[in-house]
Specification:
It is built from 21 helices and two strands. Helix content is 72%, strand content 1%. The radius of gyration is 28 Å and the shape is elongated. By secondary structure, the protein is mainly alpha-helical. The longest helix is centred in the C-terminal third of the chain and has 27 residues.
């Protein structure tokens, strides 16, 4: 219910402080509600705690820059406990369990930090060996048995070994950055340019920490433009902050994957604000960077827009057929006595019409203008003609088909509310009530 109301506020153009962030959390909660993963034990949770700012829920094998898929933690903890450091992991887990049994509310930092330092050093040794030894690299991938195992291990090793530095950076960043511009941009860049963040390989993670504090995540690109003192992609790519663009494009790709998953599972209401976030991010990238020349980023963004267009086109083009199937005027002989339309299918179709209406505001940036406008007009035209016929049929309905005719009219009024507005739907309600009154008078006379 909360998600629905927030989505409607977004569609109305209302400003909801923190609304996008809240909607993203709600969507994650919905996705997780039916597929809750087993909760890690306290030793593993404490070990992985430094990874929290970088964890994402993502499906598929696509690696997001600087991000770690939450689903990888289980296999990696198994690998640590079984292969990387079995004796030390067991000793660590036993010590943590004893501390908690003795009354500690959390695993002692000394135990956690000691094992993190040991495991990170062991990971570094294995990664160095694997870099020059194909056999060692294949062995590690086989033992962990998950896509992108090596990349995940590299991320974890860097973050865990740099835990104290990242904690200091987190403490010096503003808790919430409403707009990364002017003075705030200079302050954040000054922090990232300081010796505190000079450790090699740390930059993608400090940039993600900044992105996590941004009210508008794509503003991260402004660091790269500021560093290059230009919006030319060649100069931006060569700047020390070119990774900011890679992170932003990776996050857009992740949102597109989330959009596909939500649409696949019928969570139409949940995707409206997500679609707005994607639209705003794509527009932001195109505004901040000069992508007129051919470049890897220009091709990547074009591929993202093409993928979005394909996803939206398939969903949008299905809507007129769904509407016709439900509110098509039918002969009495085609109606089962006493039957009604399926309420869930009606609600889903209503949400889809609302979704198509919302897409009109975003379609241009997402390369789906033509199909969106054509489909919405087609739905409007069909509803305009069929609703009148349905109301006329309700006026002369018999006991055999009355319930079905009434359910069709009710559905058509819901759909018209999304396609034409609630004022028009209110007029249809009055016309339907008049038709029902006429139908009852005919029944009494009979």
């Amino acid at each position: 219910m909360l998600m629905t109301e927030l989505e409607r506020a977004v569609l109305r153009g209302d400003e909801v402080p923190g609304g996008d962030m809240l909607l993203q959390e709600l969507r994650a909660a919905m996705r997780d509600s039916g597929h809750n993963a087993p909760r890690f034990g306290a030793p593993a949770r404490a070990f992985f705690r430094p990874l929290e700012p970088f964890l994402i829920d993502i499906e598929g094998d696509r690696k997001a820059p600087g991000r770690i898929a939450r689903a990888t933690l289980g296999p990696i903890w198994t690998w640590i406990s079984r292969d990387l450091a079995p004796d030390e992991a067991k000793s660590y887990s036993d010590d943590v369990s004893r501390a908690l049994a003795g009354g500690d509310l959390e695993p002692p930092d000394s135990l956690v930090h000691s094992f993190q330092a040991f495991a990170a050093a062991r990971m570094r040794s294995l990664l160095d060996a694997a870099q020059s030894d194909e056999k060692a690299r294949r062995k590690m991938s086989t033992l962990i048995a998950m896509p992108g195992a090596m990349d995940a291990i590299k991320d974890i090793q860097t973050i865990v070994s740099s835990r104290d530095t990242l904690d200091l950076v987190a403490g010096r960043l503003p808790r919430h950055i409403r707009n990364l511009s002017e003075g705030m941009l200079n302050n954040v860049k000054g922090l990232l340019d300081s010796p505190l963040c000079a450790q090699p390989g740390l930059q993608p993670y400090t940039l993600i920490m900044v992105a996590n504090r941004l009210a508008v995540p794509w503003h991260l690109i402004r660091l790269a433009v500021k560093a290059a003192e230009s919006d030319d992609v060649a100069r931006v790519a060569a700047s020390p902050y070119g990774a900011a663009v890679n992170i932003t494009l990776g996050d857009i790709e992740r949102m597109v994957a989330e959009l596909k998953g939500d649409l696949k599972h019928g969570r139409t209401v949940a995707v409206t604000s997500l679609l707005k976030c994607i639209h705003d991010a794509v527009r932001g990238v195109r505004t901040e960077l000069d992508l007129s020349a051919d470049s890897q980023w220009a091709r990547q963004l074009a591929s993202i827009r093409s993928e979005i267009s394909d996803v939206l086109t398939g969903e949008i083009e299905s809507v007129p057929g769904r509407v016709r199937r439900l509110v098509r005027p039918r002969q009495v002989r085609d109606i089962v006595r006493g039957s009604v339309l399926d309420a869930d299918e009606v609600n889903e179709t209503e949400a889809m019409i609302e979704f198509v209406g919302a897409c009109r505001h975003f379609a241009g940036e997402l390369a789906a203008s033509e199909v969106t406008l054509r489909t919405f007009q087609e739905v409007q035209q069909y509803l305009d003609s069929s609703t009148r016929a349905l109301i006329d049929a309700l006026r002369v309905a018999s006991e055999h088909d009355r319930a079905f005719r009434k359910s069709q009219v009710d559905a058509a009024i819901k759909f018209c509310g999304k396609a034409f507005g609630q004022d028009y739907a209110a007029l249809l309600v009055k016309a339907a009530e008049t038709a029902e009154g006429a139908e009852r008078r005919v029944a009494v006379k009979a």
